[in-house]
Amino acid sequence: MSRTLILLGLVLVAIGLLWRWIGPLKLGRLPGDIVVEHQNFSFYFPITTGLLISAVLTLVLWLINQ
């Protein structure tokens, strides 16, 4: 369990450091992501982005376990 948490923390740090190059990919504004913006309220629900990240992580983890 501790190895998993350490690995997850390292992955999050790596994503944070690489965000400058990941940002232009527009991962947060894909078609299918719900964005509601009003005068003093905004709501964001990234359905498509979450599905895409989940599929990529599933494929990577499946390849690692093979």
Describe the overall structure.
This protein is an alpha+beta fold and 66 residues long. It has one domain (2-65). The chain is 59% helix and 12% strand. The protein is built from three helices and two strands; from the N terminus they run H-H-E-E-H. A two-stranded antiparallel ribbon has the order 1-2. The longest helix has 19 residues, at 47-65.
What structural class do you assign from the helix and strand content? alpha+beta
Cα-to-Cα separation, first versus last residue? 21 Å
Helix content: 55-70%
The overall pLDDT average reads 84
Query: Radius of gyration over alpha carbons?
Result: 15 Å
| Helical stretch tally | 3
Relative strand content: 5-15%
Poorly predicted ranges: none
SSE order, one letter for each helix or strand = HHEEH
For the secondary structure, the number of strands is: 2
The number of distinct structural domains comes to 1
Question: What global shape is seen?
Answer: elongated
Largest sheet: 2 strands, antiparallel
Taking strands numbered 1, 2, ... along the chain, how are they ordered across the largest sheet?
1-2
